Amino acid sequence: MTKDKDIDIRFIEYMPFGGNKWSEGRFLSYVDMVAIIQEKYPDFAPIEALKAEVTAKAWKVPGHAGQIGFITSMSDHFCGDCNRLRMTHDGNLKVCLFGNTEVNMAEVLRSGIPDSEVLEIIGAAVGRKKKQHAGMHNLTKMKNRPMILIGG
Q: Is 70 exceeded by the pLDDT of residue 22?
């Protein structure tokens, strides 16, 4: 798909979320995905990603117009550098996909407080973000929304 089109294909490691019947036996790591692609394209190699793209490891087949990114949430987490925030469909702020702590931003915004206080609330939420998630095996035991209710 990347041969003639300047597109960025993303592969995300299978992650345990409520309702997705996650199992280690169905998990395919980033390293395994790269090995599969290198069977057909032996010169498939990593490239330097943009600073803003800390959530994906960028790779490319030389001569191809596009590239491939791997989101390695499970096998090689990047939590300490992640700059993503998510707003759920019901107005809650999540600073980590795997975190089960949320801030009810709908309520905050409806309260009419000044923007400076809204920013403080968001900043406090980001400040409470953990250095890394609980790890693949512990995440399977934690309660979290299904991905479809988090948004992506």
A: no
**The pair of three-digit structure tokens given for residue 98, joined into one six-digit string:** 């795997």
Q: How far apart are CA 67 and CA 82, in angstroms?
A: 21
Q: Which helix (H) or strand (E) holds 142?
A: none
Short-list 104, 24, 8, CA closest to 56: 8
Q: pLDDT of 74-94, one tens digit each?
A: 777 777 777 888 888 889 998
Q: Examine the pLDDT at 68 and tell me if it is beyond 60.
A: yes
The dihedral built from the CA positions of residue 96, 99, 105 and 106, taken in this order, carries a sign that is positive
- The Cβ-side half-sphere exposure at 78, using a 13 Å CA radius, reads 17
Structure tokens at 39: 């069977």
Question: Which pair of structure tokens corresponds to residue 99?
Answer: 């975190």
Q: What is the pTM of this model?
A: 0.66
Contact between 78 and 55 under an 8 Å Cβ cutoff? The reply is yes
Q: Give all strands (DSSP E) within the chain, no chain letters.
A: 8-12, 45-46, 57-60, 67-71, 86-87, 92-94, 103-104
